Amino acid sequence: MKVVYRLSSVLFLLVMVVLSYACTGKTSTDTTGENNSIAGEYIVDITSFGMPLEFYLKIDQDNKFYLSPDRNYTTDKGNGTVGSSGDTYMLIYSDSTTEEPKNTTFKFEEKNIVFETNLIYGTSNLPATKEDEDDPNITYQLLGRVLLYEDYFGEYAGGHTVSAMGSNVDYEYYLTLGPGRIFNFVSNFNMGGSDYIYEEKGYFDVESDVLTLKIDEEEVIGSFSEDKDLTIGVKASEMGSREERLLRVATTASCASVYYGFYQDYTGETLNYETEIELILDKFGGYILKIDNSTAGEITETGAFNLDEGDLEFTPSDSDNSYEGVLANYVLEAEVLVKDGVRKVVKLYCNTIQGVFTAAGEDEEENSFEAFLELSSDGTFSFTVKDKNLQLIVDETGTFTTNRMMFTQLVLTGEKIYTLVVSEVGLNVNIEIEQEKEIGFILIKE
Prior knowledge:
By secondary structure, the chain is mainly beta. It folds into four domains: 139 residues, Beta Barrel (Lipocalin), CATH 2.40.128; 100 residues, NlpE, N-terminal domain (Lipocalin); 95 residues, Uncharacterised protein PF14869 family, DUF4488 (Lipocalin, Beta Barrel), CATH 2.40.128; 92 residues, Quinohemoprotein amine dehydrogenase alpha subunit, domain 2 (Lipocalin, Beta Barrel), CATH 2.40.128.120. Helices cover 4% and strands 60% of the residues. The protein is built from one helix and 36 strands. The longest helix is centred in the N-terminal third of the chain and has 17 residues.
């Protein structure tokens, strides 16, 4: 369903504001009362609009606004004055003129900015709405999510077990508090051999360590401890009742995942052994390391780890010695066991960039294409693209690396180099099918 906004006379009034500003250098807006309440910082995420990028909008108490890729606002991507007419607001850019007006209109919902016209960010002109390429019933709305209660941002996780139908049901759930005063609650459980997910979402407020979740017409109240652990009523399934549970702050949720590596030991050109490595980092600073050595067999090591920015320190449960690692762009370079009593620095790749990824797409003439990408734990890849007749357009093997510019990139290096963008949706890439003819794919993990 498409989202349509009617601005009519309100837009006319705001255009007059722009003309007034262009001619006199002053805004004719009412800056007493409501306009002062909009001061704050907002994050704009345009991942759903085809680019995995976030940037920031700041509105100060003097109704000045600033757009920037970081919160220092040293890089100027647009600045000016905020005007208003009723409950509709406008960003009036400092380089706006009568001949070439630059402005963006928006409204507020739940203290978040809802853009109604295109947002000008640097040289980009971002649409207020975008229809999903695969599902015309989905329309994405460009938002500025308010940055309130940041001390409480993060993930809180817990679980419990109940007996049902003669067996135990284990519930694992987590609550995420983030920008926009938006919360997401997800509960995972298995019953009768089937996996289930129960979800809740809405808005939240915090006052004096008291958390209020607003779920439709219901309000759920919880409280934080000094250690930021949360006690709150949890509804773990659709049919379950809400009961008070303890959710611990997930201190290492930002890096929690499974990482895979591969190590080979040589003497000259002779292969001595090779080791497959799996490292599981949990959300509470615990880890499980599993290795399979070709000569010594399987070994499991457990322990704890600390996270400081991208630096990790691992301490095995059976040792006082610690080992270091560095995590950047989904790659963890860490000192790990490769054989009983032997540790080496190995590159481990996050689950996000491991495994098989596939996609289908069409060019402007509606010719169909299929893409296949396999990323392995030894840092190698296999990448193919076929047309509708199964003829190979791309057939590459080689190695891959990651880096970060404005967003994280996955770089495939074979005879040619392909650069993919890593996002929550998948791996985005444009492939040249013919000269000056490209097709875009979003490769999804199978």
